[in-house]
Amino acid sequence: xxxxxxxxxxxxxxxxxxxxxxxxxxxxxxxxxxxxxxxxxxxxxxxxxxxxxxxxxxxxxxxxxxxxxxxxxxxxxxxxxxxxxxxxxxxxxxxxxxxxxxxxxxxxxxxxxxxxxxxxxxxxxxxxxxxxxxxxxxxxxxxxxxxxxxxxxxxxxxxxxxxxxxxxxxxxxxxxxxxxxxxxxxxxxxxxxxxxxxxxxxxxxxxxxxxxxxxxxxxxxxxxxxxxxxxxxxxxxxxxxxxxxxxxxxxxxxxxxxxxxxxxxxxxxxxxxxxxxxxxxxxxxxxxxxxxxxxxxxxxxxxxxxxxxxxxxxxx
Length: 316
Ligand code: PMV
Hints:
Layout: E1 4-16, E2 27-42, E3 48-52, E4 55-58, H1 67-80, E5 87-93, H2 103-118, H3 125-140, H4 146-153, E6 156-160, E7 164-168, E8 175-180, H5 187-200, H6 202-225, H7 228-244, H8 250-262, E9 265-271, E10 278-283, H9 288-296, E11 303-306, E12 313-314
Parallel strand pairs: 3-5
Antiparallel strand pairs: 1-2, 1-12, 2-5, 2-6, 3-4, 6-7, 8-10, 8-11, 9-10
Helix pairs in contact: 1-2, 1-3, 2-3, 2-4, 3-4, 5-6, 6-7
The structure holds (3R)-3-hydroxy-3-methyl-5-(phosphonooxy)pentanoic acid.
(3R)-3-hydroxy-3-methyl-5-(phosphonooxy)pentanoic acid binds at residues 14, 18-19, 21-22, 100, 102, 140, 143-144, 146-147, 187, 191, 272-273, 277.
């Protein structure tokens, strides 16, 4: 057992394929330059105490706080045969919760990493993935696993629910603009809403799913070759599908309109569950900073990220 262990993991954007990925299609996602950091240390107090920005809760308290982290901790203690007492878990995150940027998955991945490190266990991908997905399942209901896979792996990946991760060597000059609408939403509600669409219109939904997978195959190639025009067009096309299945809304669409008005972007779409959350746009490389500063006047949290970020990192 170490005195204390710290791990960090990045948030993510889904470049193509959210929602459809839950039902078996391909998706492309990438880690972003905003991370969650979790420290685990020993304390003389009895229970395990979880805290973040002045909020705290005890593991055995059923107060609705830190649900995902508590699920990761409980599963870890069970699996590792640990008493799960006398521990302090401190969370710091740069990823706004409810913004569609994978904040809960990043926290779950970092928690699993720090915990395994603290107890001198092997921090292997399979264990972290299993534990972190437990946390995600406790808040999401039916997660595809793309959020955890992206945060753990880092970089840019092609993901499928059954076959998992294959890495994409994206052109290093590619940058995405990420803008939070400011509207927090609940992933689980949106995933359920989409399942209803699938239930009511099965053949329509399966055609859309097939098109999304095809878009991902083309998107992978565009990312590798730096063909931003094609990638942007694919983003615009999938935004239309996401709007058809009811995951877009006026906060997303008015933001996309504003981005279009500024111009110099190859494409834009919602990212993650939708219903608010964040929008991503693919700016022309030479105009990226200018566009980011323009949109920041109205959306101060807007930022640019490359898509070659490190995944889970053990800090100490
Ligand atoms: O908005 P987020 O970060 O919760 O992303 C959810 C992505 C979905 O495809 C909508 C759900 C999933 O589990 O894949």
